[in-house]
Write a structure and sequence with these properties.
about 210 residues; alpha+beta; NADH Oxidase; 9 helices; about 10% strand; binds flavin mononucleotide
């Protein structure tokens, strides 16, 4: 099977364990990775998360302390923090409808759709809604991982941190957000990364994929 460039890049990327602190990801590449996050599809188009792009060394050092001391957080040049809405609210969903109406014009079906969405989401438990919002952030994480790989930028997706502490460091609670994912960006330090020489391990497609025809 001939490999597309995207497939080659996806096998090139890995969850980098050691980044070279001397190397900085150029702004235009960071911008493209951020743009991939913005372009990611989300359920009903609500985009229920925000992205923090952190270069500040002091803040990254604070976050590293509550994230298993994972070195890419400070040795990469940029840290992306995905923070999902703590809950859905009428205001948040109305803002989505308002933007759509503004950019596409008045569509009665659209109002009906988002009224139904509010009827379904708003009575639900906050945790259910936050978890749903967090799942949308994970889609965007996937886009960011692929975009970074495409640009030859290394990254480390991370759930290994204390979200409540990161929320405190970034003041997320007051903004109705909760941190769900970290993604340091940088460049691998080839001689210091135990994972780099190792084979990429994935399940065989026969194990994972069932064809129903
Ligand atoms: C949502 C998510 C959370 C992860 N959390 C961490 C983490 O906290 N620290 C880490 O070193 N790797 C983390 N990983 C990396 C995975 O272990 C890694 O992606 C997986 O083993 C596959 O290896 P590869 O990405 O190198 O191909 C995470 C990956 C994902 C997708």
């Amino acid at each position: 099977m001939s490999q597309s460039t995207l497939m080659e890049k996806l096998s090139w990327r890995y969850a980098t364990k050691k980044m070279d602190p001397e190397q900085v990801v150029p702004q235009d590449k960071v911008d493209q990775i951020v743009e991939a996050v913005r372009m990611a599809p989300t359920s009903s188009g609500t985009q229920p998360f925000e992205l923090f792009v952190i270069t500040n060394p002091g803040i990254r050092a604070e976050i590293r302390k509550v994230a298993w001391d994972q070195s890419p957080i400070t040795e990469g040049s940029h840290l992306l923090v995905f923070a999902a809405w703590d809950n859905y609210s009428a205001d948040r969903i109305d803002a989505v409808t308002a933007q759509m109406t503004d950019e596409r014009g008045e569509i009665p079906m659209l109002n009906q759709y988002y009224d139904n969405l509010k009827a379904k989401y708003l009575p639900r438990d906050e945790t259910v809604n936050h978890d749903h919002a967090a799942r949308q952030a994970y889609i965007a994480l996937g886009f960011a991982l692929a975009a970074a790989a495409e640009l030859g930028v290394d990254s480390t997706p991370m759930e290994g941190f204390d979200p409540a502490k990161v929320d405190e460091i970034l003041g997320l609670k007051d903004r109705g957000l909760r941190s769900v994912l970290l993604l340091p960006l940088g460049y691998r330090q080839a001689d210091g990364d135990w994972l780099l020489p190792m084979k990429k391990v994935r399940k065989a497609s026969e194990t994972m994929v069932t064809l129903i025809d």
